[in-house]
Design brief:
The chain is of the alpha/beta class and 339 residues long. The chain has 2 domains: 178 residues, NAD(P)-binding Rossmann-like Domain (Rossmann fold, 3-Layer(aba) Sandwich); 136 residues, N-(1-d-carboxylethyl)-l-norvaline Dehydrogenase, domain 2. Helix content is 48%, strand content 13%. The longest helix has 23 residues. It is globular.
Length: 339
């Protein structure tokens, strides 16, 4: 039986773009508040299924969607209409395609939030920079969701922590309040670029951890790899966007650790398959999910051609995935520079 909907237009409105596990988890979090949530998915069959049964048929299917608060659409313009906040929660490789039905006027006056931990492939742009450029959204109306928070644990209501970044700390604080609930604590920061670049780079490091695990390197080596990786991230971010920041915080180090070690980490899983001998294509087909680090490492590699920051772990991952260097050979070379 189709659950009865008491969906009303008087509640504050938030739009979510994306039909995957992270989008589903964000909807679960927001449903803890009295909000009107408009959810865009590409597939009409998925929209019909969600509207009838209150579950995402493909991702986190155990999560009960509160149809009193959530309405699903395939029309993206209708989805963002009257929304105060628009959250982008699709892989970076597909966000341009997902948003192609929108024009700058459709987003005028709205706050855009990136829940995407990746870069725009081919353009080597952070998602916030792309939105600011192509949709003319002012920087103070852009936010980033970051932190060590896997969708699978949100689905299980495991205690989690998020950081909301915006150039406007008041804007970040307002949205952090919306993203806080009985099992999620969110806090604001103004370090937009630091948070966003760290979120991109920790996926690359997780690939490296997966590759070395697939090659049967142990916990001792993983610990050295991750500690060197944190130094590598700091060198790059401080060079790209100098600012006083504490990279030991949960949005930086915490996000790196959970992505490098968790069983839920897509990037670690992808890297592990590469280390065990899978080709890139075969690993992508078997996973049937996007590992953001695969695209991100190419973008960071190309950006760093200009800046020339020492990034041996990033370069190792790039050489394996894009130059077809055998993983064993690449890791052997990396071992000589780790300390």
């Amino acid at each position: 039986m189709k659950p009865k909907s008491t969906y009303t237009s008087e509640l504050p409105c938030i739009a979510i773009i994306g039909g995957g596990s992270w989008a589903t988890a964000i909807i679960k979090i927001l449903s803890e508040k009295e909000l009107k949530i408009k959810w865009w998915l590409r597939n009409e069959e998925d929209v019909n299924y969600i509207s009838q049964y209150g579950h995402n048929p493909h991702y986190l299917s155990d999560v009960q969607i509160n149809l009193r608060k959530v309405k699903a659409y395939t029309d993206i313009r209708k989805t963002v209409e009257k929304a105060r906040y628009v959250i982008m929660a699709v892989p970076a490789a597909f966000v341009q395609q997902a948003m192609q039905g929108l024009l700058p006027e459709h987003l005028a006056g709205k706050t855009l939030i990136s829940a995407i931990k990746g870069m725009i492939p081919g353009e080597n742009l952070l998602v916030t920079d792309w939105v600011e450029r192509d949709f003319r959204v002012p920087a103070e109306r852009l936010c980033v969701i970051a932190g060590p928070c896997h969708a699978e644990e949100v689905a299980l209501e495991k205690q989690s922590y998020l950081t909301i970044a915006s150039q406007s700390i008041d804007q970040a604080a307002d949205f952090a309040n919306l993203m806080s609930c009985r099992f999620v604590q969110a806090s604001p920061t103004d370090d937009v670029y630091g948070i966003e670049y760290c979120a991109v780079m920790k996926n690359i490091i997780a690939l490296a951890c997966g590759i070395t695990h697939g090659l049967n390197y142990g916990d001792n080596f993983q610990a050295v790899l991750v500690s060197n990786a944190m130094q590598e991230i700091k060198r790059f971010i401080d060079h790209i966007y100098p600012k006083h920041r504490d990279l030991s915080g949960s949005a930086y180090l915490g996000d790196l650790l959970v992505t490098a070690y968790s069983q839920f980490s897509r990037n670690r899983t992808f890297g592990n398959m590469i280390g065990r001998g899978y080709s890139v294509k075969s690993a992508q087909v078997e996973m049937n999910m996007i590992a953001e680090g695969y695209y991100a490492v190419k973008s960071i590699h190309e950006i760093n051609k200009e800046h020339k920051v020492s990034m041996p772990i990033t370069e190792m991952v790039y050489s394996i995935l894009y130059e077809k260097t055998p993983p064993h050979t690449a890791v052997q070379a990396l071992k000589e520079v780790l300390r």
